[in-house]
Amino acid sequence: MNKKLRKNVKNILFYLFVIVFVGIIVLPFIWQFLTSLKPMSEISAIPAKWIPSKINVQFYFNVFQKHPFAKYLINSLVVATCTTFLSILIGASAAYALGRLRFKGKKFMMMAILSISMFPTIATLSPIYLLLKQLNLLNTYAGLVIPYITFALPLSIWLLTNFFSQLPRGFEEAAAIDGCSRIGTFFRIMLPLIKPAIFSVALIVFINAWNEYIYALTFMTDDMMRTVPVGIAMFPSNYEMPWGDMAAASVIVTVPLIVMVLIFQKKIIAGLTTGGIKE
Q1: Chain segment 244-253, per-residue pLDDT in tens
Q2: What is the pTM of this model?
Q3: Which residue, among 97, 270, 267, has the nearest Cα to 186 in the 3D structure?
Q4: Of 221, 227, 64, which is closest to residue 145 (Cα–Cα)?
């Protein structure tokens, strides 16, 4: 087997692996989407039918008619947006200090920040619940945003610190010569330079906050304050398992995220590669 043939075989195997891998990931969503379009009689049919015999969109109407699903979407959007904005604002400031300034205990602080993200959610559930109850923050947006920030910040700080540390020192020196303060340098020069990275981190934080379940289930007991994951989990009743409604709801909340990633994929890739080469 000559060198060119071996290379072609390796390329074919690589693309086959990619196709199979992507197929395994996408398959559950395809099945969920097709389930949301099936008539009720075909959802539990044995053997299972992949393609519905006729298109049925009634489940999509049921999601909004039988449940306050629009309110669930608003709640998730508000919580995820606030969490993302505050995490990026605070995280970028902390990351700039850790990535650009020299002070004692910086490495210890970085390890401490990283260790916070290692706590299992269930271990912090009870103390956070008691704290929020004392502060009368249960069933409020703040009651979810504050806990979400505590776990989104370590991720934001850790990732953005690496990007800040890779930027050349010449930018700050030029800004100082022009009379720009440290804060002015941060907002006017450094933040614009890592916009793609900030966008990537913001998207990760937003998706994590959008999909979070345990905190939302525990801290939001009022039906009108529930977020999307908890709202969908509450669809079943004692006598009914609405598979069609749940499938339709899951498609509704997933499609916007997929579209958003596809639209901004260039910025995401640029953010992931920013700082990969040290100047």
Answers
A1: 888 888 888 8
A2: 0.82
A3: 97
A4: 227
- Return all residues near 79 (Cβ < 8 A) that are at least 6 apart: 141, 144, 145, 148, 209, 216, 227
| Start-to-end Cα distance in the chain | 42
Q: What is the mean pLDDT of residues 67-80?
A: 92
Cβ-Cβ contacts under 8 Å for 205 (sequence gap 6 or more): 83, 84, 87, 88, 152, 155, 156
Residue type, 6: R
